Amino acid sequence: MLVPGGVPVVLVILVPLAVALLISLLDLDQYTFRQWVGAPFVGLDNYLAALRDSGLPHAIRVSVVYAAIVTAVALPIGVAAALATQNRFPGRGIVRSIFLVPYVLPAFVVGTVWRIILQPDGVANRVLGSGPQLWLNGPRSFWALVIVQSWSAWPLVYLLTLAGLQSVDRTAHEAAALDGAGTWIKLRYVIFPYLRGPVSLAAIVSFLHNVNNFTLPYVLFGVPAPHDVEVLPVLTYVESFQNFQFGLSAAMAVFSLVLIAIPLVVYLRAVRLDTGEKP
Q1: Tell me: the pLDDT tens digits for 32-78?
Q2: Do 226 and 92 belong together in one domain?
Q3: 135: buried, middle or exposed (CB in 10 Å: 19+, 13-18, 0-12)?
Q4: Vertex 98: Cα angle to 126 and 186 (nearest 5)
């Protein structure tokens, strides 16, 4: 029964992971690529070089900070949008569809459109009336990435929160109404306890997606990216497909995997403790 699902998992996830781990231990570059598995074995040298001689620490710092800020911005917006569209009102279906537009658009389209908007003579500077400011280069590039990714990320929180609102017991609403509870009391003691799980999941998924997002920064800023937005996926791509340092880029990919696994393990452990299961 497990074979139909297990075979694709092995072929799509475990085999590429094993190959990446192997490459990260080899001195594999444009000169030794023909040898492939016969390339010189260098052990952990690629990992040490990634930490000492590359922009990896800076890229990890940029990725984590930007992902945390985007998640912090997207959470309240998504929760508020879900609460605003929970009850029936004329045109609710249209409003819900509009809210999903940033999420369903491909990242390539989002990056291209926002790249046009943020040009020195683009719509953003015209609306702000600030003259030809640079948003795609220099210090403002980091905040441009945060703004664009926040615009694209909050509908995911909205969807998960809206799904959590469907599990709120109607009798709890009725009991709170009979007790004369106001809107804030109902939100705090009736609705928010039901949303703790969905919102926590939304925060973890959003953070992981932001940390691992490659397409949007790549399309928005191109390569080489400005120093302030040199996120880990783009740096890994540059080392692999522009500098042809395949062993070094594989080591960076492993670091990226570890970075993604840490919050995921923390979340799964918290869920087990919350349900009373032994970790």
Answers
A1: 888 777 788 988 999 999 998 888 999 999 999 999 999 999 999 99
A2: yes
A3: buried
A4: 110
